[in-house]
Design goal:
- The protein has 8 helices and no strands.
- The chain is mainly alpha-helical and about 200 residues long.
- Among the domains are: about 5-80, lambda repressor-like DNA-binding domains (434 Repressor (Amino-terminal Domain)); about 100-130, no CATH class; about 155-185.
- Helix 4 (about 45-60) runs antiparallel to helix 5.
- The mean pLDDT is about 75.
Length: about 200
C-alpha cells in the first residue's frame, strides 16, 4: 500500500461516490474526508477520533481492514497518543456548622424583623407605650357626678302650691273632726230608759 489516503480515495472513486455521498451515508464531514485522503491525520483530531474515522471509512468502502489499520498504526503510532490524565477536582473544605447555629441565626433574624415591624408601627402611632414606660403618670380621672336637672321654676312653684293646699286640707279635716267630737253630747241612755225621777229640770 503506497499511501493510506490514496488507497481510500481510489476505492471511493471506483464506487463512484463523492465526499457528500459518504457524508450522507456515514456522517463523516467532507473536510475530514479530504484531510484523510491527503494523509493529514494529525489535523483531524486526537488519536482515538482519527482511528474511528479511518476504520468506519474503510469498512464503508469494503477495504481490507487489517491492511488499513496496520498502515494507520505506522502513520500514527499509538505511542503518540496523549494519555488521558484525569484532573483532580479540588473540593473546597466544607465548614460544618451545627444545628444550634442555624437555629440561633433564624431566631436572631426573626427578632430583628419583628422589632423593625414594632418600631415602625410605634413611630406611625399604631402602638402606644405602656404606662410604666411613660415619665409622667396620667392624672386621675375626675369623677363628675351628674347634677340633677333643675326643674323649671314654674313647675317647682306649682308643686309648692299643691303641697300647701294638701297640708291645709289635712288641717281642716282634723279641726272638723275635733269639733264634731266636742259637740256630740246627746243623752242616748236617757232616751232609752226614759225619764228619771232624779232628773230635775233646771228651767
Amino acid at each position: 500500500m503506497e499511501s493510506l489516503g490514496k488507497y481510500l480515495k481510489e476505492l471511493r472513486e471506483e464506487k463512484g461516490l463523492s465526499h457528500h455521498d459518504v457524508f450522507v451515508d456515514i456522517r463523516i464531514r467532507e473536510d475530514i474526508l479530504e484531510k484523510l485522503e491527503q494523509n493529514k491525520l494529525s489535523a483531524i483530531g486526537n488519536y482515538g477520533f482519527v482511528k474511528a474515522v479511518v476504520y468506519n471509512y474503510a469498512r464503508f468502502l469494503d477495504a481490507d481492514l487489517d491492511a488499513v489499520m496496520a498502515e494507520f498504526n505506522l502513520m500514527m503510532p499509538p505511542s503518540i497518543k496523549k494519555e488521558f490524565v484525569p484532573r483532580k477536582i479540588i473540593k473546597p473544605d466544607k465548614i460544618m456548622l451545627s444545628t444550634n447555629f442555624f437555629w440561633s441565626l433564624a431566631i436572631i433574624i426573626i427578632v430583628i424583623i419583628l422589632g423593625s415591624f414594632l418600631l415602625n408601627a410605634y413611630l406611625k402611632g399604631w402602638l402606644k407605650s405602656p404606662e410604666f414606660f411613660s415619665r409622667d403618670r396620667p392624672a386621675k380621672e375626675k369623677v363628675v357626678q351628674e347634677e340633677p336637672e333643675k326643674e323649671p321654676e314654674e313647675i317647682r312653684q306649682r308643686m309648692l302650691e299643691l303641697n300647701e293646699i294638701k297640708a291645709a286640707a289635712e288641717t281642716n279635716i282634723e279641726t272638723n273632726n275635733k269639733r264634731a267630737a266636742d259637740s256630740d253630747n246627746a243623752d242616748y241612755l236617757g232616751n232609752i230608759l226614759g225619764d228619771s225621777p232624779i232628773n230635775i229640770s233646771i228651767d
